[in-house]
Amino acid sequence: MKVGTDSVLLGGWTQCDNESRILDIGTGSGILALMMAQRNANAEIDAVEIDYDAAELAKSNVQLSPWFDRIRIFNSSLQEYSLENKHTYSLIISNPPFFTNSLKAPDKARNLARHNDSLSVKDLLEYTSELLAEKGKAAFIVPADAYEKWKNEAAKHHLFPKHLTWVKSSPTRVPHRAMVLFSRKKQNAIPEDEICIYASEKIHSQEYLEITRDFYLKF
Question: Is the pLDDT assigned to residue 53 strictly greater than 80?
């Protein structure tokens, strides 16, 4: 699986310095779990991936990393994992499936990564709430036009926006992603900002470089 811009952005944006235990839901190649380990020298990190081949790839990537002793990969659905898990998490992070009932590609692994048939928004937020510590937080990157749906569904599970960042490909474009941090505390005012990936054609913005430079060799 390719390392996508969405995951790298989310992994660089999410504050994780003081977390004790982190869960990455739908880890794919393991990118977010590895980023969390790189950014936090002490946290134990669990990562769940339903697709067998992707989970095996994530295990291989973890074993090749300096943080292999702090990351555990579970080949499981989130629903099954929640039944067996004995932990709660100070941070839950996920770059979740985006598409529902849309045309599917012939590749099974790509379908699992991009469609939410096996993990609906409702289920993801319900189990996130169940697995989250009382003072924990949960970070997601979602389609910009789906943010209101996510916010409303999260509220049903006692999760409320704590910080919202809109993601635009360039200054002249409308946002296509939203990075949102949820907690159990409802706030009247939510800090809201935006980031542009490119300042101009093929030139990354300074804000994008600052968030991601620790993870790209080319920067």
Answer: yes
